[in-house]
Amino acid sequence: MQVKPDEVLCPNGDASQLVAQAPMPTKSTLFWRNFIPYQFIRFAALNLSIVRMVTRGHDWSK
After folding, report:
1. How many CA atoms within 13 Å lie on the side-chain side of 45?
2. Are 9 and 15 in contact (CB under 8 A)?
3. 13 burial via Cβ count (<10 Å: 0-12, 13-18, 19+)
4. Which site from 7, 8, 27, 61 is most exposed, i.e. has the minimal number of CB atoms within 10 Å?
Protein backbone atom coordinates (compact mmCIF):
# COMPACT_ATOMS: atom_id res chain seq x y z
CA MET A 1 0.00 0.00 0.00
CA GLN A 2 1.43 3.35 -1.03
CA VAL A 3 0.86 6.43 1.09
CA LYS A 4 0.34 9.68 -0.76
CA PRO A 5 2.19 12.75 0.57
CA ASP A 6 -1.05 14.61 1.28
CA GLU A 7 -2.30 11.68 3.37
CA VAL A 8 0.73 12.00 5.63
CA LEU A 9 -0.02 15.66 6.33
CA CYS A 10 -3.81 15.33 6.39
CA PRO A 11 -4.89 11.82 7.33
CA ASN A 12 -8.57 12.67 6.97
CA GLY A 13 -8.02 14.60 3.71
CA ASP A 14 -9.10 17.98 5.10
CA ALA A 15 -6.25 20.49 4.85
CA SER A 16 -8.43 23.34 6.08
CA GLN A 17 -7.99 22.13 9.66
CA LEU A 18 -4.22 22.51 9.36
CA VAL A 19 -4.57 25.96 7.82
CA ALA A 20 -6.97 27.05 10.55
CA GLN A 21 -4.42 26.07 13.22
CA ALA A 22 -1.59 28.09 11.64
CA PRO A 23 -0.76 31.34 13.47
CA MET A 24 -1.59 34.62 11.75
CA PRO A 25 1.38 36.91 11.04
CA THR A 26 1.64 40.07 13.11
CA LYS A 27 1.46 43.57 11.61
CA SER A 28 5.21 43.89 12.08
CA THR A 29 5.85 40.64 10.21
CA LEU A 30 3.61 41.72 7.34
CA PHE A 31 5.37 45.09 7.19
CA TRP A 32 8.85 43.55 6.92
CA ARG A 33 7.68 41.03 4.32
CA ASN A 34 6.43 43.88 2.10
CA PHE A 35 9.17 46.47 2.78
CA ILE A 36 11.18 46.53 -0.47
CA PRO A 37 14.47 47.98 0.91
CA TYR A 38 14.57 45.27 3.57
CA GLN A 39 13.85 42.59 0.98
CA PHE A 40 16.69 43.89 -1.20
CA ILE A 41 19.12 43.74 1.74
CA ARG A 42 18.04 40.18 2.52
CA PHE A 43 18.38 39.24 -1.16
CA ALA A 44 21.90 40.69 -1.33
CA ALA A 45 22.94 38.97 1.91
CA LEU A 46 21.66 35.62 0.67
CA ASN A 47 23.46 36.02 -2.65
CA LEU A 48 26.71 36.96 -0.90
CA SER A 49 26.50 33.91 1.33
CA ILE A 50 25.94 31.68 -1.71
CA VAL A 51 28.90 33.25 -3.53
CA ARG A 52 31.09 32.72 -0.45
CA MET A 53 30.03 29.09 -0.23
CA VAL A 54 30.73 28.45 -3.91
CA THR A 55 34.12 30.17 -3.89
CA ARG A 56 35.23 28.25 -0.80
CA GLY A 57 34.18 25.00 -2.44
CA HIS A 58 36.35 25.57 -5.50
CA ASP A 59 40.06 24.83 -5.36
CA TRP A 60 41.61 27.78 -7.18
CA SER A 61 45.22 26.57 -6.75
CA LYS A 62 45.01 24.04 -9.63
Report:
1. 6
2. yes
3. exposed
4. 61
